[in-house]
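Project standup — Tuesday

K.O.: blocked on the structure for the chain from last sprint. Re-posting the sequence here as requested.
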Amino acid sequence: MMEIAYPGLMWLSIGITFFVLEMAVPGFVLFFFGLAAWLTALGCYFFPWSVNTQLGVFLVLSLVCLFGLRGIVKKVFIGDKKDEELDSILASGGEKCEVTVSIKPPAEGQVKFAGTFWRAEANEEIEEGEVVEIVEQKDLLITVMKLS
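H.V.: unblocked you, prediction finished:
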């Protein structure tokens, strides 16, 4: 069997490939394979591992990085979902918007806010063209009320 002259360079190249592929494929998984490849390259620099040992180390490091670090690193790079909800443009409420399709409970209507049309609900009937106040947002549904 032929030995690779510079296994560390091979693992560095594999790691770079995983990092580039991570940008094209969503999911934040390939990053950890790239990290494992770089750690394997570092190990190859210090220890004269056989190809089988390198593959085993890469496999173990991939699993450790993926399951051990994914949650932590994902929060750093992508953000915590709880914080994301708090940063929503509508989370504070109190914003004003215009009704574009009449709201007749229990049926939904539609409002225009920040240049976008949103599904809307209210506890009372609100006619098209009225300006209303946003009370809360649940996913893509906005609860509104008439201005006092």
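K.O.: great, moving the ticket to review. Residues 83-87 have pLDDT under 50 and may be disordered. Residues 7-82 form one domain.
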